[in-house]
Amino acid sequence: MNPNQTKRPVWLDEGGRLWVIDQRELPHRFEVLQIQTVLDMIQAIQSMVVRGAPLIGVCGAYGMALAARQACAAEDPRKTLEELTQTLRSARPTAVNLAWAVDGIFAQLAGESKAASWPEVALSEAQAIEEAEVVRCRSIGQFGLAPIRAIHERHPERPVQVLTHCNAGWLACVEYGTATAPIYAAHEAGIPVHVWVDETRPLNQGSRLTAWELAQKGVPHTVIVDNAGGHLMQQGMVDLVIVGADRVSRNGDAANKIGTYLKALAAGDNGIPFYVAIPSTTIDWMIGDGVAGIPIEMRDPDEVRFVEGLDGDRRTRVLVPPEGSPALNPAFDVTPARLITGLMTEKGICAASEAGILGLFPEMGGYRP
Ligand code: MRU
């Protein structure tokens, strides 16, 4: 399939079959995979065929539609649904969108009297979640455009320099992305932007995925090693940082791809605005203190020990450290709210604090950790 034939990382074809872009293969090969069972979906989430918090939520929702189909044909539909739901919701632990989507659909199905109706109910809810995520991301872009426009008005003679970490683009969401939505909005509005793309070791979501996305959309960008950001900030080469998040606690602490915290420290030291762009589905209303409470996924140390890339036209994997050296692979870190200039959400930009968040989402005031 040609990349231009799909503008979403997950979709249903006319025959109702579910497909995803295999993000492990990008940027050098564009491949798609059919997801036929809930176990296929669990594997796709765990092995990073699909990744990024909002996308994991949407895929979890489609996974529930597949789980519902399997459960209603089982001897004990309710027990089977419960078991499949548990396995699906724990496929990856940090991005709260997965548990949010899966739990929401499970609660809906639990209220249905006939198991035979589950697949249809779950599928239509998954489609609704997908479309709502698109609307949220577009809105994040509109609100997030304001600080970029303000910098442009102060320096109309040069591009606005944005630094981002990991991939919080349309591949990680459905369309637009979270951190990339304001960048795409600026680009479409004719504001010149240039993006410093952290490569984002160990799996290089920045150099593989964000760079690919920006290139596809014609947005000027440059890939840098993860450790270059602080230096560029000191040299006046970064106007603002925009990153996504996998889970934001009630007090505004933000868990995002490992290395984000260091960027926030460097931005703070250099007086550079540091924004976290999130849909409200990424807020965990039940965690009061993100540094203490957000679970951090530990992944396979081999992701650190080996690097993958293209050798001629062959994808290859090479070992970097000494054969016997152990490695540790925490996949996320938590940036404390005090280092965050603002949260860019679908309802506007707010302070990274409980008061700031509840100012935009007053209906969530009743939820308590
Ligand atoms: O491990 P991943 O690739 O699923 O990590 C998710 C991310 O890409 C990020 O941390 C991202 O910045 C937030 S998701 C929009």
What is bound: which ligands?
5-S-methyl-1-O-phosphono-5-thio-D-ribulose
Q: What fraction, in percent, of the residue positions are helical?
A: 25-40%
Major sheet: arrangement of strands: 6-5-4-7-10-15-16
Query: What series of H and E elements makes up the topology?
Result: EEEHHHHHEHEHEHEEEHEEHHEEEEEH
Multimeric state? single chain
Estimated structural class: alpha/beta
Question: Using only CA atoms, what is the Rg?
Answer: 20 Å
Q: What is the straight-line distance between the termini?
A: 46 Å
Tell me the CATH topology of the largest domain.
Answer: Rossmann fold
Q: Which CATH architecture of the largest domain?
A: 3-Layer(aba) Sandwich
DSSP strand tally: 16
Any chance you could write out the topology, listing elements then pairs?
Elements: E1 10-12, E2 18-21, E3 32-35, H1 38-46, H2 53-72, H3 77-89, H4 96-110, H5 118-154, E4 160-164, H6 180-188, E5 193-198, H7 205-216, E6 221-224, H8 229-234, E7 240-243, E8 247-249, E9 254-257, H9 260-269, E10 274-277, E11 283-284, H10 290-293, H11 302-305, E12 306-311, E13 314-319, E14 332-335, E15 342-345, E16 348-350, H12 354-360
Parallel strand pairs: 4-5, 4-7, 5-6, 7-10, 8-11, 10-15
Antiparallel strand pairs: 1-2, 2-3, 8-9, 9-14, 12-13, 15-16
Helix pairs in contact: 1-2, 2-3, 2-4, 2-5, 3-4, 4-5, 5-6
Bound molecules: 5-S-methyl-1-O-phosphono-5-thio-D-ribulose.
